[in-house]
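Appendix B. Chain record.
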Amino acid sequence: MIEFTDSFSQASVAEACTAFPELLKRLSLELTLPTFERPLDNNGHIIGPAAIEPPKALRKTVLYVCQRDMLGHLPKEIGFCRYQRQCDQYGTPEGEWQKILNGIYYNHGNNDHPSWSCHT
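Structure tokens predicted for this chain:
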């Protein structure tokens, strides 16, 4: 799940994703949640078929942009916080959202030659 702190942040991220396809690809990849639980060995390799199970936890990412971090109409920096909320045995969320990670996507280049990276 993706959430924005305000409409300015939502519009800024949309503009940046339109202008910088590599940023859109990076966000899409990093924000995609696994659909199925897969059994893994100690090295992280898949060792069996996917098992459809209720989720053990929900995750959301909150994106935000500060107006002072803009270069023209595009953001130089996109801040994020990732949260997790535990689920019961049936996949129903319970408890509070817990912050598990925060950081930024930062453009080390410029609007003509972008170089986006993630810092946590």
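Further analysis of this model is presented in Appendix C.
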